[in-house]
Amino acid sequence: MSYSKTVLITGASRGIGLLAAKSLASKGHYVYASMRDVLGRNRERAEILRRWAADNAVMLEAVELDVTDENSTNSAIEKIEQKRPIDALVNNAGIMPTGLTEAYTVDQVQQYFDVNMFGIVRACRAALPYMRARKSGLIINLSSAAGRFAIPYFGVYCASKWAMEAYCETLHYELEPYGIDSVLVEPSGHGTDLVKTAPAPGDGARLTSYGDLTEGRERLLGMFQDMFDEGDPGTDAKNVADRIVELVETSSPRPIRTQVGHDMGVEALNEATAAIQADLVKNLRPVYRGSPSEDGSR
Fold it and tell me: If phi over 0 gives left and psi between -120 and 50 gives alpha, with beta otherwise, what is residue 16?
């Protein structure tokens, strides 16, 4: 089997990251499935992946990478680049805090931004110098419908996804001259373990002051879990993995945003803002790229 592209996926020990890693490897791509603590708490997950790769005769390696640690991120990407140039980086690692927004402490908010936002910054800064030198590459960033709307009890999660959407879309425009795509995938609710692992607010006094409203967290999470348990095909996490594969295998230019699953109005919002955003960038491009010369070059 020939291997088409080299793909690095963050947060690939479970959920969408794991599904995408297996799907890409099965399609003949060389996949680095990164996760934290491959010699410790994720040792068994990494070993299962290795056995699966061997049994299916595909190239999939579990590698150590902690997106909250700059040295870990830089080291992992440098080691991979020494073996194979990374064609696509999939920024998948994420966490979904759910609960009353005021009751999350500052330390908690910083912790979740450290994964959802700054983890992407670290991975991009580590990978982009190599991609820019080659004038090619793809960065797929896992956002959410929560990256386009404000949703009660998801304030911290929405804020982190809004921030990463702005960062990743801005990269999209700045990296165009280098032939690199930075794109966003915006899934609605899908059946992963994010619901079961959603961190709750830590400030008990603030929670108590909201009275019965504190129960909203469990009601919302329960609603999502019930929807997943019903087996609705629209909530199958493999849909997101399949879309990631499509983006990896699609030639540039790729859409800036790709919505997956139940729409929730995301497509309408994306369509409504796309023309405004495009006009803004078009009008500013002569300024930030410099005025064209008489022969049209820059």
Answer: alpha
Whether residue 106 is found in the same domain as residue 151 = yes
b/e map of 7-16 (b: 16 or more CB within 10 Å)?
bbbbbbbebb
215 shares a domain with 191:
yes
Asked whether 65 and 34 are in contact (CB, 8 A), the reply is yes
The catalytic site residues sit at 157
Q: How big, in percent rounded to 5, are the helix, strand and coil portions of the chain?
A: 55, 10, 35
Residue 20 shares a structural domain with residue 166: yes
Please report, rounded to a whole number, the percentage of residues in the chain having pLDDT higher than 90.
87
Residues 172 and 162 in one domain: yes
Q: Which two tokens stand for residue 73?
A: 């991120």
The model's pLDDT over 187-212, given as tens digits with 9 standing for 90+, comes to 998 878 788 899 999 999 999 999 99
